[in-house]
Amino acid sequence: MIERDLAEKKHSLVRTRFPPEPNGYLHIGHAKSICLNFGVAKEYGGRTNMRFDDTNPVKEDEEYVRSILKDVRWLVGGSVDSADPWDGNTRYASDYFETFYEAAIHLIKKGKAYVEELTAEEIRQYRGTLTEPGKESPFRNRPVEESLDLFTRMRNGEFEDGKYVVRAKIDMASPNINMRDPTLYRIRKATHVMTGDKWCIYPMYDFAHCISDAVEGITHSLCTLEFEDHRPLYDWVLDELRDSGLIECLSKGVPPQQTEFSRLNLQYTVLSKRKLIQLVEGKHVHGWSDPRMPTISGIRRRGYTPEALRLFCERIGISKADNNIDMSVLEDCAREVLEDDAPRVFGVLDPVKLTITNWPEGKVEMFEVDSHPKRPELGIRQLPFSGSLYIEREDFNENPPKGYFRLTPGGDVRLRFAYVVTCNEVVKDKEGKVVELRCTYNPDTRAGATPEGMKKVKGIIHWVSQESAIPCEVRVYDRLFNAAAPGKEHEDGDFLKDLNPDSLKIMKGAFVEPSVKDCEAGKHFQFERMGYFVTDTEDSKPGSLVFNRVVTLRDNWASSSSSSSAPAADSKPQQQAQPPAAAAAAADLEDVRRLDIRVGKIVKAEKHPDADALYVESIDVGDETGPRTIVSGLAKHIPLEEMQDRLCIVLCNLKPAKMRGIVSEGMVLCGSDDSQGLVQLLEPPAGAAVGQRITFEGFGEPQPDEVLKSKAQQKVWPNVAPDLKLNAEGVATYKDAMAKCKEGTLSCKTLKSCPIG
């Protein structure tokens, strides 16, 4: 779309905008919009405006303005204190209040707007329903002069709140309810943060938003899908103002173009402002910047970097299809960035004392080790070693299971970078808790050496020296909810029932190596064998260090057991039980071969009884049990008559999911071209046999999992989807390998060079 506009000389410079309302804190869903708007402008050498849509004085606050600006600077610029990444000054819709007022007068004079005095409830009743047209207001044909006089008096403050509103005069029978004479202005006698008491009438968002875009010369107005039904109103307002002389771009015939993309739905959290307020006000979290919160301020304090968040937004991509993203995708992005950037240190979270009884009294030995195994430029660090150490309590087991290679009574273990020790005595307190391990060391095993004739020791654990260890507090954060869709499985929908009681564990008796003694707040480290950590930006300071766990070293939610505070270096997560084929696929197969993609035939399609955007299809995919029920979000893109009795391509082994009360047993694959606003079914060649599996050239025969059910399996489709596309010839491909069935390649009706999902 943008490339086409530039090629056709429609615009000489791409200009986007990020326009939040200053009535709350930004969350990770906003991060997607920020990255898209700033990213598109950067890609095409354009500019991005930072604008606050501050048209509702009742809900807005200067605190939110400061927080939002800080978040955007951090995410786009990479530093809270960096130069502003947007073009020019911060803008406010309130800067254009006079223009909005003049625009409303222009519409009234043209007979395209009128002053209404029905109550809000009466306006709702007159508007009609999705299946019934609305009725014209008795004031719809009020004389222009009378409406102009009332509007002037509204501005002058002569009437109380709710007495009058200004409505557009469009079409009360429109199938789009947003076009049934929407309200453009209302009376609200409230002090505005920016303009004080200068105004007592305020424009509605739909009216102010499009005009603000036009005034600022925005070329591409990128919005989430909930604004798709509002686009006709956006275009109507700008079209009716072309002859007003108020806005330069409209006079030139180049209005902004609104384009929609799907909003982000992230599993294991909630993004609803109402639910986030419940979490904060109910004290289930410690404020809006709690590191478990999905707010950008919480994510930043948790220790996620702006690079990780931008990588996440890049990976989930942009489309019109709903994207329900597993939290593991975000966590993997954090691991990928921190693996390269974070220096390594030793940290012992739950310490138990280890005494080396044959160590020379008073001796301290220094080990020089790399701060990062692949980044020599990060230098080396000094590790002091003595006869009194701390190790992780979980690195000792009196009754070890088979395959346990860490320390046991009478057993050996290697202390990383140092020596092999043997446990000779276990000391306990009167409650039976282990308080000390008395060991001997072998001086010939220094720094990984294995003397001739000695059996190689398999277990390696980390440690800190008691004399030099730095005490600290470690906050072990985990996902805030235990359920992927909080509240979904409860009849009352209470999402609070799915709160994870182990989302925060505070380890006050932890120790870290002395190299981090004076580190500043916001400094990242990998605690070897433990995870990625950061010094807390609010509570940590030299002499009183507080570390937050950002993320574990691997995805422990993919295992059947919950994550521990000290994963073992020599053990692997215990996987959930899987069918043999699935287990083999998980170990050996490319993800694309684990998908069960088949030729299907739509036997019947009908509208979902409870959702206007959804179809319910009965699709034959060759199952012996008969056709499957599949729910698809295609109602706004493909006419119902075109969904009958036709071949399609179906992803068959997704975990069944309930969509507005109906269980969907698969996903119909489609091509989606946002630039044209088109979504089309992906189809096999004519005559393709129903039920046959789709293959990809060069990838071998599919060996699909039975159902992509476990946490690990549910990542298979998100891993494949970004590389599933229609090429320039319109052929479906995965990483440029053509998708095929026996009869030939797959394609959409007309689409080319666009994603499949």
Spatial ordering of strands, largest sheet: 12-25-26-27-23-24-13
Radius of gyration: 31 Å
Form type: globular
CATH architecture of the largest domain: Beta Barrel
| Count of DSSP-assigned helices | 15
The CATH superfamily of the largest domain is identified as Nucleic acid-binding proteins
Could you tell me how far the N terminus lies from the C terminus, measured between alpha carbons in angstroms?
Answer: 19 Å
For the largest beta-sheet, the strand count, sense and barrel status come to:
7 strands, mixed
**Low-confidence residue ranges:** 559-588
Strand content: 25-35%
Report the count of strand segments.
42
Total domain modules: 5
Highest CATH level, the class of the largest domain: Mainly Beta
Task: Present the secondary structure layout.
Elements: H1 2-7, E1 15-18, H2 28-43, E2 47-52, H3 62-77, E3 91-92, H4 97-109, E4 113-116, H5 120-127, H6 144-155, E5 165-168, E6 183-187, E7 201-203, H7 205-215, E8 220-224, H8 231-240, H9 248-251, E9 257-261, E10 264-266, H10 273-281, H11 296-302, H12 306-316, E11 323-325, H13 327-341, E12 344-345, E13 347-348, E14 351-356, E15 365-370, E16 380-385, E17 388-392, E18 412-415, E19 420-428, E20 434-442, E21 460-461, E22 464-465, E23 470-477, E24 504-512, E25 524-527, E26 531-535, E27 545-551, H14 580-588, E28 597-607, E29 615-620, E30 628-632, E31 647-651, E32 657-659, E33 662-664, E34 667-668, E35 670-673, E36 678-681, E37 695-696, H15 716-720, E38 724-726, E39 732-734, E40 737-741, E41 744-745, E42 754-755
Parallel strand pairs: 1-2, 2-3, 8-9, 10-11, 12-25, 14-20, 18-21, 23-27
Antiparallel strand pairs: 4-5, 5-6, 6-7, 13-24, 14-17, 15-16, 17-22, 18-19, 19-20, 23-24, 25-26, 26-27, 28-29, 28-31, 29-30, 31-34, 32-33, 35-36, 37-40, 38-39, 38-42, 39-40, 40-41
EC number: 6.1.1.18
Catalytic activity: tRNA(Gln) + L-glutamine + ATP = L-glutaminyl-tRNA(Gln) + AMP + diphosphate
GO molecular function: ATP binding; glutamine-tRNA ligase activity; tRNA binding
